[in-house]
Amino acid sequence: MAAAGELTPSEYIEHHLSFFTKPLGEEHGGFWALNVDSLIVSILLGLVGIGFIWWVVRGATSGVPTRRQALIELLIDFVDEQAKGIFHQGDRHRFVAPLALTVFVWVVLMNAMDFLPADLVGLVTHHVSEHGFRYVPTADVNTTFALSISVLVLTIVFAISVKGVGGWLHELFCAPFGKHPLLWPANFLFQMVEYVSKTLSHSLRLFGNMYAGEILFLLLWMWAATGLWGTIFGSVLGLGWAIFHILIVLLQAYIFMMLTIVYLAMAHEHH
Fold this sequence. Notes:
Elements: H1 9-16, E1 21-23, E2 33-35, H2 36-58, H3 67-86, H4 96-112, H5 118-125, H6 141-174, H7 184-223, H8 228-267
Antiparallel strand pairs: 1-2
Helix pairs in contact: 1-7, 2-4, 3-4, 4-8, 6-7, 6-8, 7-8
């Protein structure tokens, strides 16, 4: 495992930004491939989040709550209030609020992996891959696109369940400009642009912020390995950035959750 002092800045950053990729078939020229590190870390964090909430809820009491129970109750109430303020088209407790809670907790956990030192994680995982694991799933655009595309699919499913296939297709070709057949291509193009732009912005906003944070942490770790003064200044700045990054981790998860609720609410609207 190469340390920061043994590599040039570009080599060090490239080293830690390399994925543990598994091609699905040589005949595809490497296009169809899996970033195994992102998949493994995402799945493990999902299990950790679900397991922790299940463990706390399982031991919940009607009396004085423990600190863990109070934390989970505050989290659930917070997410439910956000869903209540946006989603007015039905019982939010059946699907939308639980989905929002799942999204928020999962994205927070994936974002929070950015606080782990890159070299330490690389040292532990280098026997699996030459470059170790890229351990921040949301700094992988494939992960954020998978999340945003899942939300896109849900919005289409919600729209069809509320309006029916005929109503959804009617809206696809007749809104927003009108029902005249000559306007169908323009309406369809407008709807496609809306679907694509929402999915892109939903994904890239989260990816861009977490990728930038990952780069800054790598630069600070590298600076901390340049000598005594570098260690002092790198550590101080790293601590400052980590404290500020707590806000980014929570804020980006909150924004992703809120947009998920907004898009599901919009799917119920009739044009």
